[in-house]
């Protein structure tokens, strides 16, 4: 398979040229033409498109079957993977259902200034786009973006993460098997291949991963004036108010943290903020529910993903072993490097300048503290911020004053399942958004189109200029009917 | 005045720190503050128009009509729209929820990004400075404006007026050139809005990448005009002239850069243009007061060089006169210059208009597509099918059929580029959005918690959760009843 040999700059160049040609030949845009030419009633999706998108459904279903076999190999949270496939199928079904609407030009109101005219905003594909995916949700974070790119009519190259090699290989195989490879391709590889790809000119780059590499991606994009969407991460805080249903709160935090790839998710609860008085109750409740969920020996539970690789294991170990942190462990802390497992671990009041509080953890342990809003604001903007409370005023204050990619009150992470909400970061946690129509928009150019009439041309805007013309033109631009009349009547 | 001394890295740092403190203190976030600032901008437009017109005459030789209508009036419109719509724009937008997240309510909240930087251009120094600032302020940000040093009178006037009228704890102007801009770019901004050349656009985005700062880049390109033989030639030509020489003498980002028409039709186009040009600017256009001059000698020399190039200078069919002392070049039309000439390789940004002839009009689409995507593309025709094809298949920032440039006056249309001509858009609500973060907010209830999503997992839980995520009521019932 082509993906196996070394992929260098020349290969990247050939790849992009080939895709550009297919794009220019209108392969991805056939629908656009076909849809605008057919009538609304009795419309069926043109073959090229429905094959692509229905193929995605087939891909998703195939993956579900493959997940069964892959689970033992990948040793990950089976439940998590199934949820991912469901999310993908939802995404595909939504796109299939809404595509006609999304593709339709949007009428724009005109004004007196441009009368007579009609205006609209046309969504057009950007061209040939690059999607660079992450290792923690390799299927979701690859296919979801490819769905957006294809719906918007682009040719797309997907570069899955090399840190999830089985998923990467499977994606390459399935996408090649089911989709039109003149416009959709997968390039497997690591730094060399990614660098080769980044040297090419793309019409958009969609990157999911770390802030550090996000900067590298944007700098590469800057050389070609390529717009980017960067879905990065951050330390997503969870504020727990004492006026809450503690059992539900704690269960949702656990499900959102350890239940989502064992804390290895961009919107994972990173640390908890609660009052000194309430903290002991929170910790007790967490210990109790953690045991209910994962049993007395969580290291043996099949319901948690493992740590992805030894590099990340060592990184997390280091966070735990740091002086003045290791003595703050109040639950868990067991490590098993051979099986890449770390038990769900809770720490209490680690120093604010400790490693664990300095970088995004993506791992299984939160810590507690006080003065929440200020603390969140003093840190880089996270991808998500959470609050658990019954207090209406607190909820409103939180939603209006805490800046994060997204906010969820009384739950964790579920906003990513709601396609009517834009999912994306702000500041250090990223730029741009996707999901639902936002995905389609992310991969489109919103082109302004204004149609004017050649009739009724007025000399008022043409030289030689005069005071009279100046006054009339001003009135026209101001769309001020009164002034227009005054000027026309020579009264101003 | 503070702006006069050297502005270096330390000053930039202090500036941003100050503004960030104001922002964190909540100065810019209230509706009242934003409205007050916008009203002050309106006062500037209403009370200081003569000074603005004078500054533009100094910097660009811009005729009063252009200054008054295409800068001040457009700004006034922009401000009035923002004042009228701000409440709507600021209101959270409800988002529909689904069965998967039930019970829940969701909305999209527009929040300010923080402290933003607007770097403006020299050709429409007031419009291109204040229009983005309107967006920044409406969205609740603190903003620093860096006007172009190539329009020094306008830059100084902007600095003076904005310091006089606006809240300088949150809105500031930094005058200067490369040194000052570089110092500013080293700081961390929450957004950078740049209007100017593609070349500097790369520099801005690279600087922004260091801090993961999102950008809007309003750049330029060679905006083509396709002229069909099936058109009203007189109106077509008048509008092209008004859009080219009538807009800062061709020195505008959406200026008609070159014309594409058929070999048969070209002579008619040229004759019509000569006739209308004479009607507009008289027999001695170099003496007409109704056109801006060339901004400075650097650009004059650049344009001269284009005209003087071998195999280009002999293609002049009208005009060509140059006066370096007064920085004037006559409206000049050229016919069929080589495609690889300077004049066809970079954005002209001046009073030169090449006409390229084709065997048939269809070829124009390919010509345009073979070049970097421009900020605007124009077509003059009566032919409905041609209009539709053009709008659907020609990629540009914006398309106007049967006129030039007027789309920038319509606030319901996003104004921005694509590819080489830029990224992001503004005008109207798009300005507000450009300077906002659209934050997703989901409120869930603590009641009715179902154990289905919690470990330990079982096949039954799996099936139910799948059905829930699929929002499939039928499957949900089947599972709940133990039937699947």
UniProtKB/TrEMBL annotation, chain A:
Reactions catalysed according to its record? an aldehyde + NAD(+) + H2O = a carboxylate + NADH + 2 H(+)
List the catalytic residues: 231, 266
Family annotation (InterPro entries): Ald_DH/histidinol_DH, Ald_DH_C, Ald_DH_CS_GLU, Ald_DH_N, Aldehyde_DH_dom, Aldehyde_DH_NAD(P)
The record's listing under PROSITE patterns reads: ALDEHYDE_DEHYDR_GLU
Q: Name one GO cellular component term.
A: cytoplasm
The answer to keyword Cytoplasm applying to this record is no
Keyword Oxidoreductase in the entry? The reply is yes
**What's the short name of a Pfam family annotated to this entry?**
Aldedh
A GO molecular-function term, please? Answer: aldehyde dehydrogenase (NAD+) activity
All copies of domain Aldehyde dehydrogenase, residue ranges: 113-449
Name this protein carries in UniProt: Aldehyde dehydrogenase
Automatic annotation (TrEMBL), chain B:
> Per the UniProt entry, what is one GO biological process?
response to water deprivation
Coiled coil located at which positions?
A: none
* Recorded family membership: Belongs to the aldehyde dehydrogenase family.
What name has this protein been given in UniProt?
Aldehyde dehydrogenase
- Which GO-annotated molecular functions does the record name? aldehyde dehydrogenase (NAD+) activity
Keyword NAD attached: yes
What CDD domains has UniProt attached to this entry? ALDH_F3FHI
Q: Does the keyword Oxidoreductase apply?
A: yes
Q: Which reaction does it catalyse?
A: an aldehyde + NAD(+) + H2O = a carboxylate + NADH + 2 H(+)
Name the Gene3D superfamilies for this protein: Aldehyde Dehydrogenase, Chain A, domain 1 (3.40.605.10), Aldehyde Dehydrogenase, Chain A, domain 2 (3.40.309.10)
Natural source organism: Arabidopsis lyrata subsp. lyrata (Lyre-leaved rock-cress)
- Give the active-site positions: 218, 253
Q: Name one GO cellular component term.
A: cytoplasm
What UniProt keywords are attached to this protein's entry?
NAD, Oxidoreductase
- The domain of life is Eukaryota
Where is each Aldehyde dehydrogenase domain found? 33-441
State the organism's lineage.
Eukaryota, Viridiplantae, Streptophyta, Embryophyta, Tracheophyta
Q: Which InterPro entries match?
A: Ald_DH/histidinol_DH, Ald_DH_C, Ald_DH_CS_GLU, Ald_DH_N, Aldehyde_DH_dom, Aldehyde_DH_NAD(P)
Q: Which PROSITE patterns match?
A: ALDEHYDE_DEHYDR_GLU (PS00687)
Q: Name one Pfam family in it.
A: Aldedh
